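Final report, closing paragraph on structural work. Over the funding period we assembled a curated collection of sequence-structure pairs, and we close with a single example.
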Amino acid sequence: METQRIVGFGITQSGEKTLITRGDNNGVTSPTPVHAPQVRGRLFYAVPFAGSVADALGNADRGLWMTVAAAGLIGFGALFIFRAVRRRRRAGGRG
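Its predicted structure, as stored:
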């Protein structure tokens, strides 16, 4: 069993709602629709607007911007650690 994302909705001739899915590791929709009782799982967490930002960047620039964002977050964390260590050293020298 593989992880699938819901990319659309459909309706059978009898009126039953179906889900159109795509595997996370490929860009092609699954050939057969999924019926609601077949779905297992639940949403664990969500990052609001992350999909909108990714869509706005497009496929070509996404890797570059992910690298820039990761480097920025690492730098931001390193700055906080540096400031905390510096504060601790200054406070330890007094007294």
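The chain has a mean pLDDT of 83. The chain has one helix and three strands. We thank the funder for supporting this effort.
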